[in-house]
Design brief:
binds zinc ion, mainly alpha, single chain, 3 strands
């Protein structure tokens, strides 16, 4: 496991510090300003996150994940711990997870889980609280390399760290008029029911373009620091867009592989490439095309 020095990691707080340093340095022509410019930059979290508590959304994530796992297990569609692809996913996650707290201190307490679902869908997600799911179709059809798996995983983990689901839920509560301020303060109104339905909605969320872009950048940095080549972001999206010809796969319907996305990734590569070069590399690479016994599909 790579040693992490939190001070060397670019957190949202350190971005502010860095901006300040840059301003100060520009004023006095400080020669060190450019040497500190490393890692990606993202903005502050949305104020909509405040409408739903982190505890509530993480509890909803855990409940939804558990329910999905139970249903899949009943159908024989939850991959066992001995599945080579489960071992692979967990090894990759083990390298990324220790790097997450600087992005969100709550991540230290999250009970992280990584599971593989025997489903032909091209899909993956990380629910609030660190509950990661990969669908077999994504690994098999796109023949993902470890670097590409790390990019997908980093991206999904970044959504959870930056609390995009919490922000989405807050926004939809606000626009649905669920929150009338007085009622919310007194714990009255539709709020209780809304929160009870939250778990089911987590799997259907679509994020904004800016959330997606943020997840791409933070994910790329996480993967790079974990020793995975961030250039895999480009090959991943090329594979995704090729797979989209024909029926659009699930993940792609919420993650369009447009030219802007590719250009953003390409533009930010130079910021994370040095992190990758300095990082400890994974001691082992996993097979591209594992022996695959066709499992019963997951009914959803
Ligand atoms: Zn995304």
């Amino acid at each position: 496991m790579p040693e992490v020095n939190p001070r060397s990691i670019a957190t949202p707080q350190s971005f502010n510090r860095r901006r300040l340093t840059t301003l100060l340095c520009t004023a006095v022509l400080c020669p060190l300003a450019s040497a500190q410019d490393e890692g990606v930059q993202v903005g502050e979290k949305s104020r909509f996150t405040r409408l739903v508590s982190a505890d509530q959304i993480e509890a909803a994530g855990a409940q939804q994940y558990q329910q999905m796992g139970r249903q899949a297990a009943a159908q024989g569609a939850l991959a066992p711990q001995t599945d080579p692809q489960v071992i692979r996913l967990r090894e990759i996650a083990k390298r990324i997870i220790p790097l997450t707290p600087p992005w969100n201190p709550r991540a230290k307490q999250w009970r992280w889980e990584v599971n593989l679902f025997y489903s032909a869908q091209l899909n993956a997600f990380c629910l609030p609280g660190g509950k990661i799911a990969f669908f077999y179709g994504l690994l098999e059809k796109l023949q993902l390399t470890d670097d590409e798996v790390a990019m997908v995983m980093g991206h999904e983990i970044a959504h959870a760290l930056r609390e995009h689901a919490r922000e989405r839920m807050g926004k939809s509560m606000a626009t649905d008029g669920v929150i009338q301020l007085g009622a919310a303060l007194l714990g009255l109104g539709n709020m209780g029911q809304y929160l009870a339905n939250m778990g089911g909605q987590l799997l259907k969320l679509t994020y904004s373009r800016s959330d997606e872009s943020e997840a791409d950048l933070v994910g790329m940095e996480l993967a790079a620091r974990a020793g995975y080549n961030p250039a895999a972001g480009l090959s991943l999206w090329e594979k995704m867009s090729a797979a989209a010809k024909g029926a659009p796969p699930q993940w792609l319907s919420t993650h369009p592989a447009g030219a802007t996305r590719m250009a953003d990734i390409r533009r930010n590569l130079s910021k994370v490439q040095p992190l990758y070069e300095r990082a400890d590399k994974p001691p082992q690479r996993f097979a591209l095309a594992p022996p695959f016994k066709k499992p019963p599909p997951l009914q959803q």
